[in-house]
Amino acid sequence: MKKIRAKLIGWDLDGTLADNFDDHYKAMCVIFEKFNAPFPSKEEYSGKMSHNLIDFYHQYDLPINESDIRQIFREFIEKFPLPQMFTGAKETLETIRSKNIEQALITMASEYRVTPFIKNFDIEKNFFAIHSEVRNKKDVITKIIYEKNIEPECFFYVGDTPADIEAANDAGATSIGFVGGFGSIEQIKKVSPKFIINNHFELLDILEL
């Protein structure tokens, strides 16, 4: 396979670097239980979750606003220990950094979850920028491409959901679908990522380092 030169790599957090799908699913179930509503299956959750939190819950006619969602989620998720990193994720970040390729964290996750995670695993130094609570990943990716004055296809974005892949594709970036987080391989394939990886080391096989 011909390797590709990346000038900048963006990363999602939940389900891509952090192995935390089950924690998120349990938190979602708590929100549904508060409204005595049957909660969706894991497959439904992973397939329908988007970068707009409120849209997901409104699909099920739950009368809830985003601030309430985030409050309930925070109260529940803070009871859990910090999630683990996926095997090979930290090593991959460090290898890419050693090759002088800049990296950014672009995530929906709130700062109260992002900061403890990146400090616990000592990965903060790998990122030139950390964008948390992102509502529109396409806009953030597009802005970085513009500010760094790079060709869109030289920006790689690694994510685990269809929404991540669509955001990268819409920005003209090179989308990398990671299988093992929130989205299934079938869900990822439907939105046409440029590449699919099953573990983080496979990203190194794609890059010209």
Question: Would you kindly provide a brief summary of this structure?
Answer:
The protein has 209 residues and is of the alpha/beta class. Helices cover 44% and strands 14% of the residues.
Could you report the average pLDDT, rounded to the nearest whole number? Answer: 93
User: CATH homologous superfamily name of the largest domain?
Assistant: HAD superfamily/HAD-like
CATH-level-2 architecture of the largest domain: 3-Layer(aba) Sandwich
Oligomer: single chain
- Helix/strand-derived class? alpha/beta
Order of helices and strands: EEHHHHEHEHEHEHEHEH
**N→C terminal distance:** 14 Å
**Structural domains: how many:** 2
Beta content comes to 5-15%
| Rounded Rg | 17 Å
> What's the total number of strands?
8
CATH class of the largest domain: Alpha Beta
Bin the helical content: 40-55%
Number of helices: 10
Can you tell me the overall shape?
globular
Low-confidence stretches: none
Major sheet details: 6 strands, parallel
Order of strands across the biggest sheet? 5-4-1-6-7-8
CATH topology of the largest domain: Rossmann fold
Q: Any overview of this molecule?
A:
44% of the residues lie in helices and 14% in strands. It is an alpha/beta fold and 209 residues long. The strands form 2 sheets. The protein has a 6-stranded parallel sheet, with helices on both faces. Strands 2-3 form a two-stranded antiparallel ribbon. Strand 6 (155-159), helix 8 and strand 7 (174-178) form a beta-alpha-beta unit. Helix 1 crosses helix 4 and helix 7 packs parallel to helix 8 (162-170). The two termini are 14 Å apart.
